[in-house]
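[User]
Protein folding is very new to me. Any chance you could explain this protein sequence and its structure tokens? I have pasted everything here:
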Amino acid sequence: MDLREVFATNLRRLRNAQGLSQDDLAYEAEMSRSYLSQLEKGAFYASLKIIGKLAEVLRVEPAELLRLPSKPSREARK
């Protein structure tokens, strides 16, 4: 999974966890819903400025948007 996919997955997960629509998040982050949609699809790369704005609105550290999924432990795979 490349970093753009990781970002897209985390962005969708965090937005949904807070019960925000794409329209709501885009408005709060001062960007178009179309642009946000493309970020969530992994079609566009996000700048550091955009990552910062989205993290602020989602009330998470910017690193949370780039966090790689944890791999299941050996015990969990059995």
Remarks:
- The longest helix spans residues 3-17.
- The domain at 3-67 is CATH 1.10.260.40 (434 Repressor (Amino-terminal Domain)).
- The radius of gyration is 13 Å.
- The chain is about 65% helix and 0% strand.
